[in-house]
Design a protein that fits this description.
The structure is a single chain. The chain is mostly helical. It has one domain. It is 64% helix and 0% strand. The chain is globular, with a radius of gyration of 20 Å.
């Protein structure tokens, strides 16, 4: 499973999380612990690879360094691609904690986020100070980082905001970003708030073309995706595992007469069709296939 699938999964989670938050439903502890454990193993794998690369590029030889940078590229790419999902989960955990709904989820997902920030800083340090990095690769990775930061902020803007959102978002960009004029860059996150489908299309156009097809943590990525899907109710997906729209979710959760207020409602009463623990393994299996 490529890490780009985690970008798409982050969009799915950000789309469904507000409904779970309003319902007072928290993720099942087994899925949360599975996510934390898989993320920990993945972080250890990243750390070992990045440390070995840092040692190897200190040796002389331009041809050797070029090969080493080619080998480490998918690792750095995977760290950057994994960030939107990590931040969305931590953001959701803070929201649950502030509403007094769960005290276990937030510490675990924030532990994952802290480890991920450490891995991100190691990658950025290598990009800036790493010996022998090709200038084209550095520019390429920097552009990927910028676009993923915009995507992450757009996802967070669609979720119910706690009081400390600045801890999770990167903030506005200055100057020309993503090849747009400055005024377009300033409006990009707001423009993508309205539709989950628009975010997917934007990612396909702006992020996917920059990616290397090699996969580093195939098994860890799949385990993390399965754990996150288990945190979402089967009611968030249709019969073939495709995420449903917020409008249709409102109809399924609350009935046609209450659907129009679904997206903006602050009603925290339980939604009838959302269960604290997934009740349909078939739906989750289909959803897992969707993201594999």
């Amino acid at each position: 499973m490529h890490a780009y699938d985690l970008v798409r999964l982050a969009n799915c989670f950000a789309h469904g999380a507000p409904a779970h938050l309003r319902s007072g439903v928290v993720p099942h502890s087994a899925s949360v612990h599975s996510y934390w454990l898989s993320s920990r193993f993945r972080h250890e794998d990243w750390s070992a690879r990045l440390a070995a690369h840092r040692t190897a590029i200190s040796r002389p030889g331009s041809s050797l360094r070029a090969r080493l940078w080619h080998e480490i590229l998918p690792v750095i790419q995977e760290v950057l691609l994994s960030e939107p999902l990590v931040r969305c989960l931590a953001y959701h955990g803070r929201s649950l904690e502030e509403r007094g709904l769960d005290a276990e989820f937030s510490p675990l997902v924030h532990s994952v986020m802290n480890a991920h920030v450490e891995a991100r800083h190691r990658c950025l340090h290598l990009i800036v100070f790493g010996a022998g990095i090709p200038s084209e690769m550095a520019a390429h990775l920097n552009l990927l980082r910028q676009r993923l930061e915009v995507f992450s902020d757009a996802l967070l803007s669609r979720m119910d905001a706690p009081h400390h959102v600045d801890v999770y978002r990167f903030g506005p960009r200055q100057g020309p970003v993503l090849g747009w004029r400055p005024e377009q860059a300033i409006r990009c996150a707001e423009g993508m708030r309205s539709s989950s489908a628009m975010l997917v299309l934007w990612a396909e156009a702006q992020i996917a073309p920059l990616l290397d097809g090699r996969i580093v943590g195939r098994r860890y990525n799949r385990q993390i995706a399965e754990s996150v899907l288990q945190m979402l109710s089967p009611a968030c997906f249709d019969s073939v595992g495709i995420p449903i729209s917020a409008r249709f979710a409102g109809i399924r959760f609350r009935g046609p007469d209450r659907a129009p207020g679904f997206e903006g409602s602050t009603d925290s009463s339980p939604l009838d069709l959302i269960q604290p623990r997934p009740s349909s393994q078939t739906s989750h299996a289909a959803a897992s296939r969707r993201w594999s």
